[in-house]
Amino acid sequence: AQTVTQSQPEMSVQEAETVTLSCTYDTSESDYYLFWYKQPPSRQMILVIRQEAYKQQNATENRFSVNFQKAAKSFSLKISDSQLGDAAMYFCAYDMEYGNKLVFGAGTILRVKS
Amino acid sequence: NAGVTQTPKFQVLKTGQSMTLQCAQDMNHEYMSWYRQDPGMGLRLIHYSVGAGITDQGEVPNGYNVSRSTTEDFPLRLLSAAPSQTSVYFCASTLQGSYNSPLHFGNGTRLTVT
What separation, in Å, do the N-terminal and C-terminal C-alpha atoms of chain A show? Predict the structure, then answer.
């Protein structure tokens, strides 16, 4: 069975600084999808970024980028120029190719200090 | 465009009571799913559906039933509530699976079983 591990229960970052959230996963599949979701205190689940395993290029969405290391099964999220609105719980998630069954990590709480 | 609508937002049940969590989407999505969120465990898949009339079990299906009589609705039934079912429940939908389109989440239902 696939598993997703987020080893950092909590992280802090100063406003305008850069922070990296870690995620590792375990799978025997060669094609799959990886996601980072943000959950602010409102409880809403917001997709931050998505990576296809067959693409070597790391995904980027504005201030958010990933470091995808397929051989190491690692998928970290880098947030640049952190803002107060980035404070939230962040979940790393995995889905099989053609799947609809996400496997989530336990989450990392990100605190942003002003 | 309402997206994914979950009702109720909060619910308190006594052990042994039954109830149905409602989920409706207006995006004509084929795929729908239910997750539960517990502290330190992320989100876990309960049941999912790939179309009207088709449902299947996820990672933690025990104690829950689902049905999919229409494309729009995917209710989750708790037949005899237990304290272990205290959790936040999320319904989600996607057009063709997360490989092709992002997962849209409802705002969640916080359920407490006493």
Answer: 41
Q: For chain A, positions 46-105, list CB contacts with chain B under 8 A.
A: 47, 50, 52, 91, 93, 95, 97-105
B84 vs B14, B36, B81, B88, CA distance in Å?
12, 11, 8, 12
Residue entry with tokens 């979940």: A91
Q: How many CA atoms lie within 13 A of B101 on its CB side?
A: 14
Rg for chain A, CA atoms, rounded: 14
Q: According to the model, what pLDDT value does residue A56 have?
A: 86
Longest dimension (CA), chain B: 41
Chain A contact probe: residue of B23, B31, B99 with most A CBs at under 10 A:
B99
Is the Cβ–Cβ distance between B103 and A46 less than 8 Å? no
Virtual torsion, Cα B28, A94, A46, A54, nearest 10 deg: -80
CA A48 to chain centre: 8
Given a cut of 70, is residue A97 above it in pLDDT?
A: no
> Residue A54 has which token pair?
């067959």
Amino acid letter for position B29: H
* Cα B92 to Cα A89: distance, rounded to the nearest angstrom: 18
Separation CA B95–CA A25 (nearest Å): 25
**Confidence band for B46, pLDDT divided at 50, 70 and 90:** very high
